[in-house]
Specification:
This protein has eight helices and six strands, in the order ββαααααββααββα. By secondary structure, it is mainly α.
């Protein structure tokens, strides 16, 4: 679609990177706004976001490398390519671990900030998937439906073939997740609920959309893609967390 958005002299602005940057900025601003509305200390938010972003990208890259380990063994030069090849679940898992460690070091309450930040993570993911669409990565399977998109000069998606617009559907689901989580955060004050529902909603949406993905070289576990396999455990973790938080709230 629009791999390169525009150029300013020697500077080239790519669609994918631009949308990632917008997503991170929007996530930060929304998180600070919600913190002030909820009278939560917003000072740690910037550091939390930096930890989540840096370790998120690192984890997403590592998980991708694991899924293509056979190719890397045959061609180790792939390790030098840091421009593409990410698996979102790696970023989510490593980002959460990084925030957990940060909160422990700073002695601030982990779940309170996770409930605050995760709706904004869904918002950032929505913008990120638009970036995927502009770049042509994470493309959908071939379709003869009118609900399709055709790439003509993509470096990743097959060109001149109607494809299911998996990136745009994923983006819409993430934006919807942001809206629903924000409403839950406003209505439900029980700690951990927003975090649990993020895990539940995202894992269900990701499991379903994987059936319509066309980029098959992303690893698999049996008949499931790597992301579908991880989704099962993330869903279970979300449900378990919801039950634990509910029981804890009922006892208090």
């Amino acid at each position: 679609m629009h791999t390169v958005l525009f150029k300013i002299g020697p500077i080239t602005v790519y669609g994918y990177g631009f949308m990632i940057a917008i997503g991170i900025l929007a996530a930060y601003l929304v998180t600070v706004y919600r913190a002030k509305k909820q009278k939560i200390d917003d000072e740690p938010i910037f550091s939390i976001m930096i930890c989540a972003v840096l370790f998120g990208f690192l984890g997403a890259k590592i998980l991708y490398m694991i899924t293509v380990l056979d190719e890397i063994i045959q061609n180790p030069k792939q390790l030098l390519d840091v421009s593409d090849g990410f698996v979102v679940y790696g970023g989510i898992i490593s980002g959460i671990i990084a925030v957990l460690i940060y909160c422990h070091i700073k002695k601030i309450h982990f779940l309170s900030y996770m409930d605050l930040v995760l709706p904004s993570v869904a918002l950032a993911q929505g913008f990120g998937r638009i970036g995927c669409f502009l770049a042509g990565c994470c493309y959908g399977m071939e379709t003869h439906s009118a609900f399709s998109v055709t790439f003509h000069d993509s470096l990743y998606a097959p060109n001149n073939i109607p494809l299911f617009p998996s990136q745009l559907v994923s983006s819409g689901l993430n934006f919807l997740n942001f809206i629903v989580l924000s409403l839950i955060a406003r209505k439900v004050k029980k700690e951990g609920y927003v975090t649990a529902f993020y895990l539940i909603f995202y894992s269900i949406g990701r499991f379903i959309i994987e059936f319509f993905r066309g980029d098959l070289l992303r690893g698999s576990v049996g008949i499931l893609s790597t992301s579908q396999f991880i989704s099962i455990f993330v869903l279970a973790a979300g449900i378990l967390m919801l039950i634990v938080c509910k029981n804890k709230a009922d006892k208090s």
